[in-house]
Amino acid sequence: MKKIGFIGLGHMGLPMAKNLVKNQYQLNVFDLNPEPLQELKALGAHVAISATDAIQNVDVIISMLPSSPHVESLYSGPDGLLASITGKPLIIDCSTIAPDCARRVSKAAADKGLHMLDAPVSGGVAGAEAGTLTFIVGGNSDEFNSAKPILEAMGSKIFHAGDHGAGQVAKICNNMLLAVHMIGTAEALNLGVENGLDPKVLSDIMVSSSGRNWSLEVYNPYPGVMENVPASKSYDGGFLVDLMHKDLGLAMEAAQSVKASTPMGTLARSLYAMHSQHGHGQLDFSSIQKLFSGE
Ligand code: NAD
Fold it and tell me: Where's the 3-hydroxyisobutyrate dehydrogenase-like NAD-binding domain (predicted)?
C-alpha cells in the first residue's frame, strides 16, 4: 500500500485527503491549523508534528497550499523539505501557483534526483468532496503516469497539459475565464433584477439561451437561485475572493511575460481587488454579485 505525506488541509486539501484515506492509502498529514488534522486522525490518518515529519518514509508527497511563496518556502531553501527528503518520493504539488515558481521548484527537486509535478485542480470544494476534481498536470510522461492512479482517487479527469509548469499555465487561463464569466453573470443578473425580473426565472431563461455558462448554471452567484452553492449560504466557504484575486495576478504575470493582451482579465482582477478592499476577501468569489448590488 502506498504511503502519502499530505501537507495543506484547507478547504480543498482536507476533502482530497479524505478521499485518499477512503481509497485505502496510508496518510501522514500536516497543516499549520490543527482542526482538520483531528478530523483525519478520526479516519485513521497519522497526524505529523511538522511538514518534515509528514514526509518521512513516504512514497508520495502531496501539497495543497495557498500560493507560490507558501510552496517555495515549504520545499526550497535551507529549511525546505527538499533538503530533508529521504528516499525518492514522487512530489505532487496541487496548489495553484505561478508557472515560473512551479518550474523553479521542480528543477530544484530534479537537481536532487527527485521527480516533481505541478497538478493544480479545478472543480472547487464540491468536486474535492465528491472525488470528481479535474487535475491539470505539468511534468514528463513517466512522472504523469506514476501520479495518475493517485490523482484518480481524488478526481475524475486527469489531463497532461505538457512539461513542468504547463499545468499551472492551463489552470490560470481557466481561472481567468472563470472570473470573467462569473462577473458577467453577476452583472447580467443584477441588470435583470433591477429591471423587475425574478433572478431564478432570468437564470432559467439564460441557461437555455446563448448566455449559458458554468457560473450561471452550476454556481449561480445570486442568493436563493440555487441550493447548496455559496450564494445561498451567505457566500461562506468555496473559493475565496482573495484566492481568485491571486490567480488573476498569476494570469497577469504570465500575460506580461509574453506580452499577451488580457483586457478582460485585467478588468476582472481590478474588480476583485475592489471587492476585496470592501472587506469581502474571505467570502466565496461568487460574492462579486454584491459589487453590483452596492453592498
Ligand atoms: P485554504 O487557504 O483553505 O487552505 C490552505 C491550507 O494550507 C490551510 O489550511 C493552511 O493552514 C495550510 N498551510 C499554509 N502553509 C502551510 C505550511 N507551511 N505547512 C502546512 N500547512 C500550511 O486554501 P484552499 O481553498 O484549500 O486552496 C488551496 C489551493 O487550491 C490554492 O492554491 C487555491 O488557489 C487552489 N484551489 C482552490 C479551489 C477552491 O475552490 N477553494 C479550487 C481550485 C483550486
Answer: 165-291
Ligand 1 pocket: which of 19, 28, 31, 176 to mutate (most atoms within 8 A of CB):
31
C-alpha closest to that of 126 among 257, 233, 5, 246:
233
Q: Is this structure's pTM higher than 0.80?
A: yes
User: Residue 47 sits in which domain range?
Assistant: 3-164
In contact, 139 and 116? CB cutoff 8 Å? yes
Q: What is the CATH number of the domain that holds 135?
A: 3.40.50.720
Provide ipTM, 2 decimals.
0.99
Number of Cβ atoms within 10 Å of the Cβ of 37: 21
Atom 12 of ligand 1: nearest residue by CA position: 8
- CA atoms within 13 A of residue 28's CA, in its CB half-sphere: 18
Q: Are residues 23 and 110 in the same domain?
A: yes
| Residue pLDDT, tens place only, 205-228 | 999 999 999 999 999 999 999 999
